[in-house]
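One record is kept unedited as follows:
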Amino acid sequence: MFELGLSHEELVKRTSKDCLIPKEMLKEDCEEYNALADGDKKALVHLVRAAKAIDEVFMKQDNPKNLEFKKFLEEETEKGNEDAAMTLTLFNAQIGMNAVDSEANKIFLAKGEKELPGKGFYPVDLTKEEFHDILLKMLNDGEIEEVQKILNQRSMVVRDGNKLKGIDYTEYFEKEFSYIADELEAAAETSTNEDFNKYLKLQAIALCENNPKNDAYADKKWAELQDTPLEFTISREQYADEMTGTVVENEQLKKLLDDNNIEPISKDSIGIRVGIVNKKGTEKLLEIKQYMPVLAENMPYKDEYEQNISSSDDDKQTMVDVDIVTLRGDEGTYRGGITLAQNLPNNDKPSLKIGGGRRNVYHRQIRISTSPEAKIKRQKRLDATLSKDLHKYYNQEADHWFTIGHENVHSLGPKSGTEALGKYKNIIEENKADMGSLALLDVLTELGMYTEDEKKQIIVTYAADNFLKAKPNLSQAHRVRTVMQSKYFLENKAIWLNQDGVLEVDLDKMIPTAQKMLAEIIRVQLSKDFSAGEKYVLDNFVWTDEMEIISKKLKEIDKALNGILKTPLADKLANEQV
């Protein structure tokens, strides 16, 4: 039996319209859906059903008690328990019992529950010390293959007597994956695009067989998709697992792993995105594709590593702007924020080893905020935090332009070896992507991608939006990197607070400072040294007095703590017969 973790007053606050902000995806009668061919409309029904099924997979990966707690909340809600109903609302928004809100508060919806560093990927009672001891014994006993399975991105780990055992996720989630595969096969029967259908069939095979090569073939085909009406992605990201990366902190264990050519790779949290490709938005994105080889040439220390994009090859980067039908599983976890875009597959994925490329997908409904309330709140924030002389350069669309740069820089820089940075790998990679986006602005402006005014808009919008409402914890890679950057720009006097406590920006110093930080980041990645990564992060992850001044103002203006996705079109399609 569970007990609710939040008081009635706290639940009322956190579910209020000020604190729980809805993000609406495509509506039932939207023109994007109505413009689709009948075959694609039928395919969407199957894709939405597939997406819905991934929630159960993700919840098991996130916390083994999630499903049981969700059932408890649903039963209590049916009995008329108002607090359980509010807790269920929060659970569905964050897809799980534990989360972190926008003010870096850890939220535990069930009393007595705690954060699990290994999430549901590892036994809940497994400590880091025991984990290391078991792996050391298994390696010394010659169980090399089993340790490889345990430290693989696609396994769930269980106890096996005094040892551990890695179970491939195609076996662990056989029931759920089989259902999803059937829906993908059905979608491929009606979808109008041949390339898209080939991908769906390859993805269905990958879900049903314990064979990483199948994932490679599916990912390779997915990364080639450019001119398709529909978007479907099974995403596999590694931000949640805080256990696997700890093995590089144990020198004895790391040496044994190196001696046996075992690279520890953090576990994949699985999600699904379903959408309709926006042709107009995609055309704008593709303008930058022609410049990717030039950008590769402008990366620091480019002669010391292999990049996903070479100086003579730009056909391994596709880009689409997508109107979102639904985000489920890891994609839909609204925990203080939700991603604007993704660049996949990540460097650890086998498709990159067989010549596959990467694909950027941008989420239109997440980035577009046009409500009068949002505009008023945004103006209040600018008035309180940004020098009035710089307001003319603030442009919400410039945040999208910056994100385009961020996602493309994920394809630049060192292609491999960063797993050695352990728990700091993701922080450093996200930091690299941000700094690359700024550092390459002069190059893109000279090439004609942006005007001088647009460059200034990107710089000022980035600087203004880079301050947070609270200091994050180290598990929040995307937020930790923003603190590191703000501290770095303050330290280099590219930004500062004036006597009125509002932000000033030296437009001439921003890009050189970003170039300097980018070079430092690449050097850390090339070091393949955990201690070097740790030192770099901790030296820069400093919450300054300036950040505290801005954070207090942001909290006064913006009461939002979390958000919830509304998916009216997906809800309708999920109940349709085909």
Notes: The first helix runs from residue 8 to 14. The chain is about 50% helix and 15% strand.
